[in-house]
Amino acid sequence: MLVLTGTGTGVGKTAVTAAIAALAVAGGRRVAVLKPAQTGLAPGEQGDVDVISRLAGPVTTRELRRYPDRLSPEAAARQRGLPTVSPADVASAATELDETHDLVLIEGVGGLLVRFGPDGSTLADSAWALGALLIVVADAGLGTLNATALTAEVANARGLHVAGLVIGSWPEEPDLASLSNVADLPVAAGAPLLGALAAGAPGRAPAEFVEHARAGLSPWFGGEFDPDSFQKAAAART
Predict the structure, then answer these.
(1) Which one-letter DSSP state was computed for residue 83?
(2) Alpha carbons 177 and 28: distance in angstroms, whole number
(3) pTM above 0.85, yes or no
């Protein structure tokens, strides 16, 4: 069971979740993806779990709460007077999925401490309740080191284990900050670099996407990404 959190919004969490799922499906594993809360979408609109299904293939998906306003889950629920999602809800759903699947992926909303409800519960509480490993998805460019370090520090303080870091969208033409950050991100996270998914990969057809996933994720996920080679290539360009 893996919990995926971003260092913020728009860093590529859904793409990385889909990539991990795609490789697991390609390897013959039964995969489930759980989204505790989806914000900014009306009923019937396609959400993150739909994107993951399109890209990864036959996966079981479950979305616990959906809110139409593009806000944090707590604020979105309050805005419409809708029920919130709790760590107990997440743990119960994930445990149930775990009974019939080889891999359960839990994709967070925004960052690790985005509030689910007025009690202050967050994705960190859900990860702790499940004893799940945490994968941090980070941006490549300027500003990412501070956000990554803060995420890792909070995770460690709450007794979570950060298994690794994945760059959610590696630009085709990386700037100096992105190239420099390749060496610094694992230090900030206190965890190994486990991948860098090419920008634009989610826009590919499923067959192409799985190849991007294979190239962009380490053997830890069933891919072929070599962090040492990637870091050396980045350093050579700085």
Answers:
(1) P
(2) 38
(3) yes
Per-residue tokens: 223: 């891919």
- Residues 212, 197 contacting (CB under 8 angstroms): yes
CA angle centred on 193, ends 25 and 18, rounded to 5°: 25
Is 13 considered catalytic here?
Answer: no
Which CB contacts under 8 angstroms, 24+ apart, belong to 154-159? 154/112, 154/113, 154/124, 155/112, 155/124, 155/127, 156/190, 158/124, 158/128, 159/128
> Could you read off the pLDDT of 1-44 as tens digits, one per residue?
999 999 999 999 999 999 999 999 999 999 999 999 999 998 88
Structure tokens given for 207:
């067959």
CA atoms within a 13 Å half-sphere pointing along the CA-CB vector of 36: 34
Catalytic-role residue among 35, 66, 115, 212: 35
Cα–Cα distance between 119 and 80 in angstroms, integer?
A: 18
- Give burial (CB, 10 Å; 0-12/13-18/19+) of 205: exposed
